[in-house]
Amino acid sequence: MLKTLIAANIQAFLLSGGTASGKRGSRGKRAVKSVAGVAAVFIVSLLFCSLYFGMLFISLASFEEHGYGWVYFAVSAILGLLFLIIGSASISKAMIFEAKDNSMLLSMPIKSFHIVASRVAALLAMNLAYLSSVMLPAAIIWQIRCGFSPASFVSFLLFLIGLLCFGTSLGVIMGYVISMIARRSRHKTAVTTVLSFVFFGAYMAVIIGGQSYIMEALENKELLAGGLKGVLPLYIISSAVSDGSIGVSLMAMAAELGIFALSVLLISRSFNSIVAGSSEVRRKKTSPVEFRSRGIMPALVLKEARHLGSNALYIMNSTMGAFMTILAAGFAVIKRESLQEALSLLSASPEYLCIIIATASTFIIGMNTLSGVILSVEGDRLWILKSSPIKSIDILKSKLYMHEIISLPPAVIFWAVTVILVKPDIATAALSLAAVTLYCVLTANLGLWINLLRPSLDWTNEAAAIKGMNTGLVMLLNMAVSTVLVILGALLPSAVGSIPALLIITAALLLGTALSYLWIKRRGVRRLERI
């Protein structure tokens, strides 16, 4: 039974992209396409992490010449663990404690341990991708700069397995803590969302602050080594990898596997009470209810907003761009004096700076992937919408509007902060606002386009739709558009001037928005009706 449950959970994530035409096709073809898509997203994520952490790893590799090679593996382990834990904490809560089939499985003669273990096994598969995104570039750079001996390579593999299990156990425990806190609160979604964003904020603070500390400490290797040496388990494990001590690595991996098994066992013991407590019924006092009529579109948008607000993982995963954009605007306001001083040192006009900042901000705004999953999260409830006397185009429009409501206000706030900081002329400010607005609309259209091509409606766990491959595809597509915008914003002003450059960028965005909406209005409606 445990093998069957593990296979079902892993398959649910691999086959998270369905077919849009209503023609199912063979599961083999679906599996091949899904695995290929997951591999493509993983490769791009790997390239991103290689670029982001590459210079840091190259600098740390020089520690081997001074006898501090273990520092390299210690720092890479910390970065990998942080990347893994934050990625798995919120989803572990949704996967383990909020799956749609929990009640059904508990009503069957299946042990709670088997249910939890199968969900954690699927989480392990996902976390392997998170961890590999950091550790694989670290291994490649170490091999190029220093080289693995056979013993140190085996120790590194044992080190990787231990990190995967230990990091997953920490993520599961964090998800368990969030579930226990939310269980005792009347506003479960709000509590879970706030805690998830707090964890993410702490992660970003550690990454940004820690990386700057490490770069400063590179000049004083003894200082960095002394600080990390104080964490004795980390020092022992990373030294075993550097020295090729397979025996020590085996003992460390065994200890981490023990922690992992213990965490799964402890959570499985309280699994029944958490699942039962999450759906408890409270007595409410009856009171007169006032029914207010709404138009079709406001009612549909309100439905989407309520659905979004009912799931913390949905909020966290699909609206991260809005959260990051507001944080960036707040940071710019707090540091406005130092930023203005730094910008004044650049030999660039305010209009050029406005274009560069506006186009670069689209990378953050593009992290909103709501429209890429907004159709899939309907699941088997989609037939209710389709059977209602509502036009198919209105259903799709409401989902586009929901994405735009989430994306536009933070984008406009960041634009306003940019204008205040760089003080461009009115025409440049107005055209940059038009470009940012059109980008928000375009990304909403592109996300829904992907979701219509690849709906995933047969899930048993909503996390499969929210964290499925569509999210990665939408983010990659948005990043591609942002990259083109930044290149145009950097090159065109010097060639044709700021205003013509913005006119070209705005016209390109307008064309893309019009074509994508035309596809949704025609072929997208037909695809929705065939689902």
TrEMBL record:
<feature type="transmembrane region" description="Helical">
    <location>
        <begin position="312"/>
        <end position="334"/>
    </location>
</feature>
<feature type="transmembrane region" description="Helical">
    <location>
        <begin position="400"/>
        <end position="422"/>
    </location>
</feature>
<feature type="transmembrane region" description="Helical">
    <location>
        <begin position="473"/>
        <end position="492"/>
    </location>
</feature>
<keyword id="KW-1133">Transmembrane helix</keyword>
<protein>
    <recommendedName>
        <fullName>ABC-2 type transport system permease protein</fullName>
    </recommendedName>
</protein>
<feature type="transmembrane region" description="Helical">
    <location>
        <begin position="70"/>
        <end position="96"/>
    </location>
</feature>
<keyword id="KW-0472">Membrane</keyword>
<feature type="transmembrane region" description="Helical">
    <location>
        <begin position="156"/>
        <end position="178"/>
    </location>
</feature>
<feature type="transmembrane region" description="Helical">
    <location>
        <begin position="498"/>
        <end position="520"/>
    </location>
</feature>
<feature type="transmembrane region" description="Helical">
    <location>
        <begin position="190"/>
        <end position="214"/>
    </location>
</feature>
<feature type="transmembrane region" description="Helical">
    <location>
        <begin position="354"/>
        <end position="379"/>
    </location>
</feature>
<feature type="transmembrane region" description="Helical">
    <location>
        <begin position="428"/>
        <end position="452"/>
    </location>
</feature>
<feature type="transmembrane region" description="Helical">
    <location>
        <begin position="234"/>
        <end position="267"/>
    </location>
</feature>
<keyword id="KW-0812">Transmembrane</keyword>
<feature type="transmembrane region" description="Helical">
    <location>
        <begin position="116"/>
        <end position="144"/>
    </location>
</feature>
<feature type="transmembrane region" description="Helical">
    <location>
        <begin position="34"/>
        <end position="58"/>
    </location>
</feature>
